[in-house]
Amino acid sequence: MHDIPLTVVFGAGAAGSTAALVLARARHRVLVVDDRTYRNRVVAEFHGFPTRDATAPARFLHDAHDELRRYGVEIVHGPVVDAVPSDTGARVVLTHGRTVEAAGVIVATGVRDELPPIAGLAERWGRSAFNCPFCDGWEHRDRPVVVIDAAPGADELAVLLGSWTRHVRTVRADDVSSLQGPGRSIERVVLHDGRTIPAAAVFVKAPVSPRSDLARRLGCVLDHDGYVLTDSQGRTSNRHVWAAGDVRRSPPQPHQVVLAAADGSTAAISLHKASVAGDLGTPCGMVEGLR
Ligand SMILES: Cc1cc2nc3c(=O)[nH]c(=O)nc-3n(C[C@H](O)[C@H](O)[C@H](O)COP(=O)(O)OP(=O)(O)OC[C@H]3O[C@@H](n4cnc5c(N)ncnc54)[C@H](O)[C@@H]3O)c2cc1C
């Protein structure tokens, strides 16, 4: 089996899981590495994905990873420690000193939300504090919401939210002292000057940045915010490396599970075509007639 070229997928969120599924079904040998810190792990359920609307992200990924194992995909839970270009593609370092040689790599490591330091925000993130009206606007329709302005674009977010509720107030993050309400819910936003604003939820416009610099280490060109630059097929400037999901979607491109999945599929198909064209190692069926 080991003469079959390996594709390594960094990250097993919607993007990486879909890429791995498409590649496995195209008879590639696939290793997925994921440290289980997917972006929407804080939410009880996510929305906007047909047939999976209002599904717990953990359930979605559990099912996706089960499907991968059925095709023989190896899933390693832990970080990709390092990745560097090599003669045959990329040398990927995992934990416990394990190193693998990959003919192709798909970087699907996502982004992180840089929340402002407001008391009560971190523990409410994904429960009563959100970022995206398309994800959580419906659940707060006609209810009072507050937009917290911690990055450019807060005004646009407030205007958008007006499609779900007329009761939208915007405040600067620096002016907010705390979020208050029982458990992980919100009843009021408290300002430093003592004023309070009633709210059923807050929507935070905060900086968002790519999670890892693995693409940079592989020599891929990034934009000035660290997003991986790709063509429409997910190809990066390194011919062995593709990128998929939030990590290649610089603002104002939307971040959605269904779009990340579509990106993963697009990148996998492009990688497969490159391997058929001889630009990468060929997948197993063409090498050995196996499977
Ligand atoms: C609060 C909140 C609510 C949201 N709600 C919705 C919603 O309702 N509907 C919707 O469509 N979208 C929603 N989103 C957006 C959605 O979460 C993202 O668009 C989606 O998760 C992107 O998928 P991805 O695969 O690109 O990245 P992720 O899901 O973030 O997956 C990236 C994976 O890479 C792994 N990883 C990162 N670095 C490394 C490393 N060095 N080594 C190994 N593994 C690594 C992580 O463990 C992670 O599993 C929400 C986002 C937030 C923050």
Quick summary:
With 291 residues, this protein is α/β, with parallel strands linked by helices. It has 2 domains: 6-112 and 208-288, FAD/NAD(P)-binding domain, CATH 3.50.50; 115-205, 3-Layer(bba) Sandwich (FAD/NAD(P)-binding domain). The chain is 23% helix and 24% strand.
Low-confidence stretches: 287-291
Total beta strands: 17
Strand sequence of the main sheet, in spatial order? 3-2-1-7-17
Any guess at the CATH architecture of the largest domain? 3-Layer(bba) Sandwich
Strand content: 15-25%
Please tell me the overall pLDDT. Answer: 95
Number of domains: 2
Structural shape: elongated
- The count of helical stretches stands at 7
The name of the CATH superfamily of the largest domain reads FAD/NAD(P)-binding domain
Helix fraction bin: 10-25%
Supply Rg: 21 Å
* Biggest beta sheet summary: 5 strands, parallel
